[in-house]
Design goal:
Elements lengths: L3 E6 L4 H11 L4 E5 L10 H11 L3 E4 L6 H6 L1 H22 L2 E7 L22 H10 L7 E5 L2 E2 L6 H9 L6 E4 L3 E2 L2 E2 H14 L3 E4 L6 E2 H11 L7 E4 L21 H5 L9 H12 L1
Parallel strand pairs: 1-2, 1-3, 3-4, 4-5, 5-10, 6-9, 7-12
Antiparallel strand pairs: 8-11
Helix pairs in contact: 1-7, 2-4, 4-5
């Protein structure tokens, strides 16, 4: 049986690189990796040209503008990349009959729910980034797959784990992280594996995919410092309202995602986030 082809947008990002690696390791798939500047999602002709030329069986659309505060300052650019760009991807995929899997975010929710959000909960973003990603979800055909995730960390790109390790190198400096925002940290490599499986099965619909175990940014930072052999007492809690300078964009106070669609569909949930976190800290310190 000939290999199927998957085209990955955002292929140089921290998730995109792991998605490419997952499909590269599977002989049933041939991977075409696309990223800026080779593929500008806001350029309709470029997107249509790339996807219709390759004519893939599947598209993993992980390309996005994810700088939350920058999106707040430039909401038009956020919409151009995350919403209109997704329209272009969906249009091109439709022309060649490719199944689309779109990576979305916990920021589509307001964060005022006391229990985890499941896939059928009402969306109501509180920032421009969340609004642009939700708009992207709405550009997809009914048979597409939406993977919502949160607090991604990994070997590639910029993320909280690398930030904490860098800040912890400065001795005698307290590290302050907010303790009033809750979510589920998610390892990019674990998420990529789940994306691969959903693509391979062409499972339509919305799925919440995170590692298990909710925490706060404060708790997460303490875990990173502890795993690195440091003193977790250096990490101090601070409220979002007391951040100096304040963040430009509001954040959902609690964006813990319940993977109900996976759980009720008999599909495996990702492991507890402490396991891949420990593996990553060891790798980054090696």
């Amino acid at each position: 049986m000939p290999a199927r082809t998957v085209l990955v947008t955002g292929a140089a990002g921290q998730l995109g690189r792991e998605v490419v690696a997952c499909f590269d390791a599977d002989p049933a798939w041939r991977v075409v990796a696309c990223d800026r500047p080779a593929l500008d999602l806001t350029d309709r002709d470029a997107v249509l040209g790339a996807i219709t030329t390759v004519a893939p069986d599947a598209v993993v659309h992980s390309g996005a503008w994810t700088a939350v505060d920058a999106c707040e300052s430039d909401p038009d650019r956020a919409l151009a990349v995350n919403a209109l760009g997704t329209r272009h991807v969906a249009d091109a995929a439709r022309r060649v009959g490719a199944h689309v899997t779109y990576v979305s975010t916990d920021h589509v929710f307001p964060g005022d729910k006391q229990v985890p959000y499941h896939e059928w909960d009402e969306t109501r973003p509180v920032n421009a980034y969340g609004r642009s990603k939700l708009a992207g979800e709405r550009e997809l055909d009914p048979g597409s797959t939406i993977v919502r995730t949160s607090w991604v960390f990994g070997r590639h790109g910029t993320n909280m784990v690398k930030t904490v390790l860098r800040l912890a190198e400065a001795k005698d400096v307290d590290l302050r992280f907010v303790d009033d925002q809750r979510g589920c940290p998610t390892a990019a490599a674990d998420l990529a594996g789940a994306v691969h499986d959903l693509v391979a099965a062409q499972r339509p619909g919305t799925f919440h995919v995170t590692n298990q175990g909710a925490t706060t940014w404060y708790g997460f930072a303490r875990d990173v410092v502890t795993l690195a052999g440091g003193d977790p007492g250096r990490v101090r809690p601070v409220s979002t309202a007391d951040l100096d300078p304040p963040r430009a964009a509001a954040r959902p106070a609690s964006s813990v995602l319940d993977g109900a669609a996976l759980r009720l569909g008999g599909l495996p949930l990702l492991r507890d986030h402490h396991e891949p976190l420990a593996e990553l800290v060891r790798e980054l310190q090696a």
